[in-house]
Amino acid sequence: MKKRFALKLIAACTLAVSASAGFAQDVIKIANIVELSGGGATAGTNFKNGVELAVREINANGGILGKKIQTTTADTQSNAGVAKGLTQKAIDDNVFAIFGPVFSGSIMVSMAESRRAEVPNFTGGEAASITEQGNPYVFRTSFTQATAMPKVARYISDQAKLKSIVVIYVNNDFGKGGLDSIRKALANSPTKILSEISTEPGQVDFSAAVLRAKQSNADGVFAYSNEEESARLLRELRKQGWTKPIIGETTLTGQKVIELAGEASNGAIAHVGLTVDAPVPAIRAFKAKFEKDYKYISDHNGMKGYSGVYVLKAAIEKAGKLDRKAVAAAMKGLKVNTDKYPGALMYTEFDNKGDLDRMSFMVEVKNGKQEVIDMVPPLGLATRDVSKAIPAAPAAAKPAAKK
């Protein structure tokens, strides 16, 4: 019995030593676990490209604490089960941090593995439930729905002044989370939701959904779906002669949606946490660098990946050492100023759940391009010093008044 106990103790000590020794290496290993095929291919590819652009820049400038970053990339195939398996493999490879998945349904499954291994995990997923599980190792590179929806709800009620809307959403974790968040955000507003229309991931025919929206006689539609489905919905709305406002969140006016929907995207309005068309110098610089390297214009997902790596850099430097627990702790209440970390794109603060707060934008698609029509201050965290959150901007793009 004593001999068996001694062997177990030796094995446990060996594992502990090998895990800590991994970070005495000359590189900081991070894993991209993203959607490169399937329904999330556009989002995942942009996210991955943004991560790799930031890594090249940081390495060219000396790395982090004198160490270069090394990346690996794996395709989740837009499948939550695959994402979980790839996360476990990355952990077995002793990575320092994980970036992705982007899809909310996938990160909800895979983050159990990174949490168990105490590996910081950065995601572009927006479902509010991601950071409501009490996971101290998951951090967003985008707004949670709980942060974004009050902003778009304020626009619907106070600026568009719609008395009623119909919500068309995708029936997955992302869509159901968005539906719940917009319900809560509009609950005490003058705007009423007359109908909630569920659609499926990968759905091709939106004629019935649009017909139901028209029959509701609502003043506008709030659209919340994946990229290809959003484009199909926009085309069907225009086909059936819909002329009332079409409002949504980031995805609705994304570059891929605009390309797929063509002229049908014109007039669509969305609240976006990130857009390459924002009148912010750091964002304009990112847009130019990304297009130069990849020969196309990034969407918000590229910005999520890119800024996320700079946030990791800020957290490691705040911790002062390559210790995953210390870095996760440093993320709590982290304030990232663009004077020191321009790659963060905008002044950003994190709360103790892993959610972020920063300035955002209202955009409208005009002539096939996003145009910023308003700048929206942070909801809570950064409003203690709004001047830090709002960068200098051309006179044509004034910050929105706080309501």
Calculate Rg over CA atoms.
Answer: 22 Å
Succession of helices and strands: HEHEHEHEEHEHEHEHEHEHHHEEEEEH
According to DSSP, the number of beta strands is 15
Decide which structural class fits the backbone: alpha/beta
Q: On the 0-100 scale, what is the average pLDDT? A: 89
| N→C terminal distance | 69 Å
Strand share of the residues?
15-25%
Poorly predicted runs: 5-22, 381-387, 390-403
Task: Specify the helix fraction band.
Answer: 40-55%
Per DSSP, the total helix count is 13
Based on CA inertia axes, which overall geometry fits?
globular
Helix and strand arrangement:
Elements: H1 2-21, E1 27-34, H2 41-60, E2 68-75, H3 80-92, E3 97-99, H4 104-117, E4 121-123, E5 138-140, H5 145-159, E6 164-170, H6 173-186, E7 192-199, H7 207-215, E8 220-224, H8 227-239, E9 246-248, H9 255-261, E10 269-272, H10 281-294, H11 300-319, H12 324-331, E11 335-336, E12 348-350, E13 356-357, E14 360-366, E15 369-376, H13 386-389
Parallel strand pairs: 1-2, 1-3, 3-4, 4-5, 6-7, 6-8, 8-9, 9-10
Antiparallel strand pairs: 10-14, 11-12, 12-13, 14-15
Helix pairs in contact: 2-11, 3-4, 5-6, 8-9, 11-12
Structural key phrases:
single chain, 403 residues, alpha/beta, 7-stranded mixed beta sheet, 18% strand
Question: If you had to describe this structure to a student in words, what would you say it looks like?
Answer:
The protein is α/β, with parallel strands linked by helices. Helices cover 42% and strands 18% of the residues. The protein is built from 13 helices and 15 strands. It has helices at 2-21, 41-60, 80-92, 104-117, 145-159, 173-186, 207-215, 227-239, 255-261, 281-294, 300-319, 324-331, 386-389; strands spanning 27-34, 68-75, 97-99, 121-123, 138-140, 164-170, 192-199, 220-224, 246-248, 269-272, 335-336, 348-350, 356-357, 360-366, 369-376. The strands form three sheets. A seven-stranded mixed beta sheet has the order 7-6-8-9-10-14-15, with helices on both faces. Helix 2 crosses helix 11 (300-319), helix 3 runs parallel beside helix 4 and helix 5 crosses helix 6 (173-186). It starts with a helix and ends in a 14-residue tail after the last helix. 51% of the residues are buried.
